[in-house]
From TrEMBL:
SMART domains: HATPase_c, HisKA, REC
Gene3D superfamilies according to UniProt: 1.10.287.130, 3.40.50.2300, Histidine kinase-like ATPase, C-terminal domain
Protein name as it appears in the record: histidine kinase
Pfam family name, one: Response_reg
Record field: catalytic activity: ATP + protein L-histidine = ADP + protein N-phospho-L-histidine
Class of enzymatic activity (EC top level): transferase
Modified residues (4-aspartylphosphate): 353
């Protein structure tokens, strides 16, 4: 009986264990099914996010052209208006409108840049860059502003050449130097380069108001602003986007940015670049390009303007005519070629917007005009949507590229240089 009882007990235990195993197996299958469902939902969410990024990129491409087009027309119209103002009050109001337009342009461009960087559509183009030449270019840009505020601005010379993206590195340093000048009222700003461990460190030091310790991690966030004094002496602040875009550009390049600051004494920004980016110096690259003096004599120059936006056409024609140019306008490639039927009027230069009506492209229009005339006529392509591929196409054509909104002074200097 004892033996039978033990056997029956073992039998019951085996059944109980089998039931427990079956239960645990069912639970495991159920957990696996839930995990598969979660994975499917995650994949679907990822696909939706990727599609949203694609849509965002397409929107930005359209926005950068359509949003900035009216701003470009406003810039040109205000410039033409400034030329006819004689009263002090009129000139003051024109300058006020210009400053508002410049602020709006900066805000829009920065927001578009941040969105492009977040979407991952900005890819660095690494080339050999003379660091000293880049810094001296920044010095030329900021020296007038520093002098107006009574500040000293110094860029320490360097003989280094870097393998980097020139445009992104320049924008990073430009934004940091602009901030340094904005938040400094006495003393000055110093930019220098030195070795720091395994890195090359570019330092931008100022004698400004300093950054409180609890705000140092927030200065790279969007719309985080401090109180500054502008060149007019009025208390104000920046847009709060300069350092936000610096952070994104630094990450895009694989660099690192940090800062040290003391209240009332100033701030030092550190940009650390891997030493592997340093390249052997090439004499041809170390020589700064010396620009030839540019004349502004555009009197009588025949300009063929190919532009489809009516407001931009009106503003551009008015501006060119105020410079004593002989202007004819067209909105498509066909209309531009029709203007050439008048053999008594041969254009000296062509200005073409890249995106025209009927899907025409300004670069293709210029090629057609040159083929019609049988010679390589000077040409300028304008666009509100800069693209590396377009830059290559324009360079291969031997033409110039100008990004909208167009600054009248820059346009006039460029036209004079091309005609010369």
């Amino acid at each position: 009986m004892d033996q039978q009882g033990n056997a029956f007990s073992l039998f019951q235990t085996a059944i109980s264990l089998e039931s427990l195993v079956r239960s645990r197996t069912d639970e495991l299958h159920s957990a696996l099914r839930r995990l598969e469902q979660s994975n499917a939902e995650l994949i679907e969410a990822r696909d939706r996010a990727e599609q949203a990024n694609v849509s965002k990129t397409r929107f930005l491409a359209a926005a950068s052209h359509d949003v900035l087009q009216p701003l470009n027309a406003a810039h040109l119209s205000v410039s033409a208006l400034a030329d006819v103002q004689t009263s002090t009050e009129g000139k003051r109001l024109v300058r006020q409108v210009e400053r508002s337009l410049e602020t709006m342009e900066t805000l829009l461009r920065t927001l578009l840049d941040i969105s492009r960087l977040d979407a991952g559509v900005v890819q660095p183009e690494f080339t050999s860059v003379s660091l000293d030449q880049l810094l001296q270019g920044l010095r030329s840009d900021f020296l007038p502003l520093a002098e107006r505020k009574g500040l000293r601005l110094r860029f320490a010379p360097t003989s280094l050449t870097l393998k980097t993206d020139r445009t992104l590195l320049r924008r990073i340093l430009q934004n940091i130097v602009a901030n340094a000048i904005r938040y400094t009222t006495t003393g000055g700003v110093l930019v220098g380069v030195r070795r720091h461990g395994a890195n090359l460190r570019i330092e931008i030091a100022d004698t400004g108001c300093g950054i409180p310790e609890d705000q140092r991690d927030r200065v790279f966030e969007e719309f985080h602003r401090g109180v500054a004094v502008d060149e007019s002496g009025l208390s104000g602040a920046g847009l709060g986007l300069g350092l936000a875009i610096v952070w994104r550009m630094v990450e895009t390049l694989g660099y690192r940015v940090s800062l040290d600051s003391r209240i009332g004494q100033g701030t030092v920004f550190h940009l650390d670049i891997p030493a592997s980016c340093i390249t052997p110096n090439e004499p041809s690259q170390m020589l700064a390009q010396i620009e030839q003096p540019r004349g502004y004599g555009l009197f009588g120059a025949k300009v063929l303007l190919v532009e489809n936006d009516p407001d931009v056409v009106i503003a551009m024609v008015g501006l060119l005519e105020s410079w004593q140019c002989d202007v004819r306008a067209a909105g498509t490639t066909e209309e531009a070629l029709n203007e050439l039927n008048d053999t008594a009027w041969i254009p000296d230069i062509v200005i073409a917007d890249q995106h025209l009506d009927r899907g025409d492209l300004g670069s293709a229009t210029i090629i057609g005009i040159r083929a019609w005339l049988g010679r390589v006529i000077p040409a300028l392509v304008t666009t509100a949507d800069p693209d590396p591929l377009l830059e290559e196409i324009v360079a291969e054509m031997g033409a110039e590229l100008l990004v909208k909104p167009i600054r009248p002074a820059r346009l006039r200097a460029l036209l004079a240089h091309m005609l010369a």
